[in-house]
Write a structure and sequence with these properties.
The chain has two domains: 2-219, Acetylglutamate kinase-like (Carbamate kinase), CATH 3.40.1160.10; 296-436, 2-Layer Sandwich (VC0802-like), CATH 3.30.2130.10. It has 14 helices and 16 strands. It has helices at residues 14-24, 41-53, 57-78, 82-103, 109-116, 118-133, 157-169, 198-208, 242-250, 261-266, 320-330, 355-362, 390-398, 424-436, and strands at 2-6, 31-35, 139-140, 175-179, 182-184, 190-192, 213-218, 239-241, 271-275, 284-287, 295-311, 335-340, 344-349, 366-381, 405-411, 414-420. The protein has an eight-stranded mixed β-sheet with strand order 3-4-2-1-7-9-10-8, with helices on both faces. Bound molecules: adenosine-5'-diphosphate and aspartyl phosphate (PHD). Adenosine-5'-diphosphate binds at residues 7-10, 36, 196, 218-220, 223-224, 227-229, 253-255. Residues 377-433 form the Aspartokinase ACT domain.
């Protein structure tokens, strides 16, 4: 069994959906197909929910009509037989009807999650109709039937394995179509795996059933050595270890959801990143294999807050770090980078939900300084002993860029630098030149 995920751009139009149908039906290997919402849909659904939250139902309804119109165009291009067109129309009525009903109700967080879940339900149902018309046999699965998260938002893998295996065993089909991103939470409400979560859905399913491999099809030919949106002349990396891919995903390489690697790493299921628009390109192969000692790629993660705590006792007493960590632990806020000196500790976090109470408690331990809008620039590769002078190249490349924190040696795969967000693009470009073009 392979688990094959197609992202929003891969199902972004009728033509692309037809292309995907062609790609998945070329051989008889059993496949679980995980689809995202049509590109742009989740953003529109988030905007609809925001209008309802702001108490502007008319604005929400206007946005719903606009989105529905774009789906009517998609349907008219996707299916041609009268019976299938009627079924498609019924699907639009069901899901846009639900949105319209929500717009007239009082906003809640669970309503927001229900609204954003409609994208993947629409894409998978419409895709099924095209398969029906193209006479490609497949079965549709409702992801919340098997994708569950607990009260800490962690996925329940044994339940996932049992749910998926039961469905496979009960079916004569070898193609199964399901939604990425959406799941059910501990209260039985529809929930999601956070933005970009369809990658995570696919790797969770692949890990849970020990799939042969997970394929993630997107609009680029694999993981590039730097962010192609801001740096020119980037290139795809043929192979990455799980550790390298995990660091890149966590530190901002948008092609992969930040949490998507741990499940496949734990269950040793390889992942291929492939380009829907260029299926013959070899893409990136991610596995347990560790490559040569070299820098593989750069990534950057925005929205970082740096917090410096200066001990009021001047010399760090033992137990000081524990007290600091306990505060972050109590607010379930994870720390990305940490540096210490004799008198101070600096940490970074990417989630400011509990920043106020965290700062209030830290202030009891010493003087606290906070810098918002920071970016972690991350250099990833097999950097075991740095026999190639990578650190020197990093410092030479950064020349005139003020660096707020540096972390090296925490993992053999990563050098992290903290810079102000305004320096991000410059840092990525200069490091690209210094590390890959000499
Ligand atoms: N290092 C990187 N390598 C490849 N793509 C990257 C990288 N960093 C950012 N990206 C961006 O990620 C995009 C693909 O991810 P995403 O938009 O989530 O795709 P999908 O909608 O298919 O899930 C690419 O178009 C590219 O602009
Ligand atoms: N549709 C969801 C989930 C997702 O993973 O999308 P994509 O695969 O297009 O990044 C989102 O936009 O967040």
């Amino acid at each position: 069994m392979k688990v094959v995920k197609f992202g929003g751009t891969s199902v972004g139009s009728a033509q692309r959906m037809k292309h995907v149908a062609n790609l998945i039906s070329q051989d008889s290997t059993p496949k679980i197909i995980v689809l995202s919402a049509v590109s742009g849909t989740t953003n529109s659904l988030v905007a609809i929910a925001e209008s309802i939250e702001k108490g502007k139902p008319e604005e929400a309804l206007q946005k719903i009509v606009q989105l529905k119109t774009s789906y009517e165009v998609l349907v008219s291009e996707l299916v041609s037989q009268t019976a299938t067109q009627q079924k498609a129309q019924a699907i639009l009525e069901e899901h846009f009807g639900l949105l319209e009903a929500q717009a007239k109700m009082v906003y809640s967080d669970s309503m927001q999650r229900l609204i954003v879940a409609q994208g993947e339900l629409l894409s998978t149902k419409l895709f099924m109709l095209y398969l029906e018309e193209a006479q490609i046999a497949a079965e549709w699965w409702y992801a919340p039937d098997f994708m569950q998260i607990d009260s800490f938002k962690e996925p329940l893998i044994p339940q996932l394995r049992a749910g998926v295996m039961d469905k496979v065993k009960a079916s004569p089909q070898h193609l199964f179509i399901t939604q990425g991103f959406i799941c059910v939470n501990e209260k039985g409400e529809i929930d999601n795996l956070k933005r970009g979560g369809s990658d995570y859905s696919a790797t969770l399913i692949g890990a849970a059933i020990s799939a042969e491999e997970v394929q993630i099809w997107t609009d680029i030919d694999g993981m590039h050595n730097n962010d192609p949106r801001v740096v020119e002349n980037t290139y795809p990396i043929a192979e990455l270890s799980f550790d390298e891919a995990s660091e890149l995903a966590y530190f901002g390489a948008k092609i992969l959801h930040p949490s998507s690697i741990w499940p496949v790493q734990k269950f040793n299921v390889p992942v291929r990143l492939l380009n829907t628009m260029q299926p013959e390109a070899r893409g990136t192969y991610i596995s347990a294999k560790t490559g040569q000692e070299e820098v593989k790629a750069l990534a950057a993660k925005d929205g970082i807050t740096a917090i410096k705590i200066k001990s009021s006792r001047m010399i760090l007493a033992y137990g000081f770090l524990r007290k600091i960590f306990e505060i972050f632990e109590n607010y379930r806020t994870s720390i990305d980078m940490i540096t210490t000196s004799e008198v101070a500790v600096s940490v970074t976090i990417d989630d400011n939900t509990y920043i106020e109470p965290i700062l209030a408690e830290l202030q009891k331990l010493g003087t606290v300084e906070v810098d918002y809008n920071q970016t972690i620039v991350c250099i990833v590769g097999n950097l075991v002993a740095d026999s190639k002078g990578i650190v020197k190249k990093v410092f030479d490349s950064l020349e005139d860029i003020p660096v707020r924190m540096i972390s090296y040696g925490g993992s053999k795969n990563n050098i992290s630098l903290l810079v102000d967000v305004s320096q991000k693009v410059k840092a990525l470009k200069q490091l690209n030149k210094g590390l890959f073009q000499n």
